Structure formats: C-alpha cells, structure tokens
Amino acid sequence: FDGTPVAVKVQYPGVDVAIRADLDNALLLTTLAKAIAPGIEPEPFVDELRARIGDELDYRKEAANQEEFRAAFSDHPWVRIPAVVHEFSSTRVLTSEWAEGRSLYDLLDLPQAEKDLIGEELFRFWCDAVFRLRLFNGDPHPGNYLLLDDGKIGFVDYGCVAEFSPDIVRRFSGLIDTL
C-alpha cells in the first residue's frame, strides 16, 4: 500500500460458526421475539433477524452496502462515508479509508444548539436513506458516527442494512403524513 492510513475491521476466526449456530436455534429466537414484542407474530421478526445478523458476518456484503451509501451521499454537504479499499478487503476483512474525528459521545460537551443540529442531521440522513435509497442502516449507535473537523459527520459500519420495498416506504410516508 502507499502509506495512506486506513481502518481495518477483522472478524475473529470461528465467530461466524458460533453466531450461525445461535441463529439456527429457532426456539431461542422465537422465545426472545415473543418477549420483546408480545402479541406480534415472531416468525417474520426472527427471519429478518437471522438475515441481518447473517449479513454482518459477510464483510463483502458490508463493503457493498458501504459503497452504495457512499455513492448516494458522495456530494452531500455534511455526510462523509469512507471509501472501501477493495484490494485489501475480503469476506472476513474490511478495509476502508481512515476517517479522523470525535466520537458522538463527545456531544455531551457541546452547546445545545450544536447537539440539536447534529441530531437533525442524523435524522435527515436516516430518512434520506430510507425514502431515497429504500435502505436503513440498522446499527445506529454513537460509535458508528464521527464528528469530523470540517463539520461533516462520518458514517461508518454498514454490516446491518435492511432494504425496504417501495410499498413499505409508501406506508412509512403515510404514517409520517398522519403524524
């Protein structure tokens, strides 16, 4: 490589086998689903959980998700998604451009107006992804966002991405209109 800093995500050997074995235990997943959402049919929930967690084990899938989001937001004024370095990525290794920034946990020290703006930008990113791309990055936690020095927000970790049908997006839109 040419010395450019990168981020490297490496999957521990054997973790895929252990997780897939856990996912194959349908009784456990169904029981968990019933506890989380009583009164809702658990099988579709369990099937979706299996698919999304299974996706997180394949870093090629994550790389494709990341590149799809990056292409869609490449000219965005405050969104930055690091490019995947494909020649150094595989099923169990994901290499991306390095993104330097502060953790979203650092929001606690910012003035309220800045917190509000960042919260609005995060919400707009999620909505834009759902309504424009029909994709949802299903791992929204502070560790997956970076406050960059240039004022942009770095969005990382695309292992858990759900794709919605046009019908579901239309229903979301109707729900928002109703609210």
Topology overview:
Blueprint: E1 6-10, H1 15-23, H2 26-36, H3 42-56, H4 59-72, E2 79-80, E3 93-97, E4 101-103, H5 112-133, E5 135-137, E6 145-148, E7 153-155, E8 161-163, H6 166-178
Parallel strand pairs: 2-7
Antiparallel strand pairs: 1-3, 4-6, 5-8, 6-7
Helix pairs in contact: 1-3, 2-3
Relevant terms:
four-stranded mixed sheet, 6 helices, 179 residues
Structure description:
The chain has helices at 15-23, 26-36, 42-56, 59-72, 112-133, 166-178, and strands at 6-10, 79-80, 93-97, 101-103, 135-137, 145-148, 153-155, 161-163. The protein has 179 residues and is an alpha+beta fold. The strands form three sheets. It has a four-stranded mixed beta sheet, covered by helices on one side. Strands 1-3 form a two-stranded antiparallel sheet. Strands 5-8 form a two-stranded antiparallel sheet. A hairpin with a 4-residue loop joins strand 6 and strand 7 (153-155). The chain is globular, with a radius of gyration of 18 Å.
> In which order are the strands of the major sheet placed?
2-7-6-4
Strand content: 15-25%
Counting copies of identical and different chains, the oligomeric state is: single chain
Give the biggest beta sheet.
Answer: 4 strands, mixed
Average pLDDT taken over every residue: 86
CA(first)-CA(last) distance: 51 Å
Structural class, please?
A: alpha+beta
Write a concise synopsis of the structure shown.
The protein has 179 residues and is α+β, with helices and mostly antiparallel strands.
